[in-house]
Amino acid sequence: MTHTARPFNNWDAVKLVALLLMFIDHSGAFFLREEPYEWLRGIGRGSAPIFMFLAGYAASYRFKWDLFILAALMTVSDTILAGHIRTQNILVTILVTRMILHWWDAKGKVIAHPYQWLIGAFAWVITIILTQYGSLCFMFALCGYVKRRREFYSKQLADRMLVLTFVCFALVSQFTFNFVWTSTIAMLPVLCLVCWMLSAMELRTLDTSRVPAPVIWAGKQLSAYSGYIYALHLIVLEWLTGHPF
How many domains in the chain? Predict the structure, then answer.
């Protein structure tokens, strides 16, 4: 497989962090739903920003049919369980975000005023009613877009945009989940750590000489198929528990 031909890099590493946080989040969403365990969902808030940031940090925004099929499967599954049309899954939001960035990228230009785009995206935060995370996804993707293009944007601009987006995300999360104080305390340091990790993002190979080869292989597989893991495990959990995510 072409995915395993390249060395393990920090793109893979941050995806593994996102998957770990995702599993923590979903354990609280499906199995430990009582209020004393709500802090699991607070910790899990650090997962989605990573995937959304990487959607913009990617080298290419070409249409991904596998992502579309997975998003469609989740939409059909959620609609059947909920009894009405439901597009509340992050893959739909990421697909739309990638399409917007691809449309602009095809012009052969870079975004001249990303701060204005960021503010405009936040003005449409009400779109979280229609798709999961709504325009917050585009805000994180825009941060990834700026971070990747170091020749056009300063590190200071990239970091300021990232911090502002995380502040907006924390406020929206607190409002939509109505977290008790213990969950908020669990959420905030995780978001700070993820923000710091993404602010230091620079695509490079990591030294894995002391890590067993099978572990590296497994890590790259998890990274390469993270979208499949997200969609398929969520569908299984929803049907096992009867709770649409």
Answer: 1
Q: Taking the chain, what is the end-to-end CA distance rounded to the nearest angstrom? A: 32
> Token pair for residue 198?
């993404």
| Tens digits of residue pLDDT in 23-34 | 999 999 999 888
pLDDT value for 5 = 66
Q: Which domain holds residue 21?
A: 2-241
What's the token pair of residue 175? Answer: 């409002």
